[in-house]
Write a structure and sequence with these properties.
single chain, 320 residues, alpha/beta, Rossmann fold, 2 domains, seven-stranded parallel sheet, globular
């Protein structure tokens, strides 16, 4: 048995060290990572993946902490991927959500990993998606992904999660507009956290009004749940709504979502591999510096240069 096979065997047995090592391989984009994922892929598709997103200050980490505690009380094993902004110095996770959830880390039924966005729009890098696969294959019943924030571009979470929870809190000013602009279409459940604050009812009414104006769900109307995560108030109701949505998906909608997510992932991987291949070829042939020089001297522009490079490399290519 090779080292990779031993590592995968450990993941399938839910060994924490093996899970951590495999995710590190993926984060560092090492050659063994793709082989590890290929071996794990047949064992994925069993976990319920929950995406949690919302503006900074809405209390996402505390909410997830309480959700994990309630899931454990219900006998579920849980994986958490907390996606943080990328440090400009180390390239690693900047905020370190595991620090906030440290007391959960001693629970053998919980695995928590902070990961950097790697400057990916939407805060979900490919490594994050692959880490979810590792946790899924390891036998975790539920995997929770905490995205960086909310806004028009912060909808990448829909490519990975089956149930998307959008968290809002009263008193965050124009952040409600960010939800209106970017997340109303993809949110399955809306949470108004910090419900002990003033104006909580107004926030709830605003979200419900937006949902009424944008009834994009044919059978599932996203509920709005009020919580006070710091005390645990509303967490049971929230988890019940998540479970209701899971059952709704299992009744038929889940296959459509799986197909959409699989297609989106395939397209992303193709784009990434094509870009890597072209850049490696440019560097190997010494053409990259010349193209950059022409752009800097205004002889061409980045878009025209990209079109030229693609046309040159696709010359003679015939689609099957």
């Amino acid at each position: 048995m090779t080292k990779i096979e031993e590592l995968i065997d450990g993941v399938l047995k839910s060994d924490r060290r093996s899970i951590a090592k495999t995710i590190t391989l993926i984060e560092n984009n090492l050659p063994e990572a793709q082989k590890a994922l290929s071996l794990l892929y047949p064992h994925t598709g069993k976990a319920h993946v929950i995406g949690v997103t919302g503006p900074t200050g809405s209390g996402k980490s505390t909410l997830i902490h309480k959700l994990v505690e309630e899931l454990r009380r219900r006998g579920k094993t849980v994986g958490v991927v907390a996606v943080d902004p990328t440090s400009p110095f180390t390239g690693g996770a900047f905020l370190g959500d595991r620090v906030r959830m440290q007391e959960l880390s001693t629970d053998e039924g919980v695995f928590i990993r902070s990961m950097a966005t790697r400057n990916t729009p939407g805060g979900v890098a490919r490594a994050t998606k692959d880490a979810v696969k590792v946790l899924d294959a390891s036998g975790k019943n539920v995997v929770i992904v905490e995205a960086v924030g909310a806004g028009q571009s912060e909808v990448e979470i829909m490519k990975i999660a089956q149930t998307i929870v959008v968290v809002q809190a009263p008193g965050l000013g124009d952040d409600i507009q960010a939800i209106k602009a970017g997340l109303m279409e993809i949110g399955d459940i809306f949470v108004v956290n910090k419900a002990d604050r003033e104006n909580v009812n107004k926030t709830v009414v605003d979200i419900e009004a937006m949902l009424d104006m944008n009834p994009n769900k044919e059978k599932w109307m996203p509920p709005v749940v009020m919580t006070t995560a710091i005390t645990g108030e509303g967490i049971t109701e929230l988890l019940d709504k998540i479970d209701e949505h899971r059952k709704y998906l299992k009744a038929g909608a889940i296959e459509t979502r799986r197909r959409e997510r699989t297609e989106a992932e395939l397209v992303d991987v193709i784009k990434e591999k094509v870009a890597e291949s072209i850049l490696e070829d440019l560097k190997r042939k010494g053409e990259l510096e010349e193209v950059v020089r022409k752009i800097l001297s205004r002889e061409t522009d980045p878009y025209s240069a990209a079109d030229m490079l693609l046309a040159k490399r696709l010359k003679g290519f015939k689609a099957p």
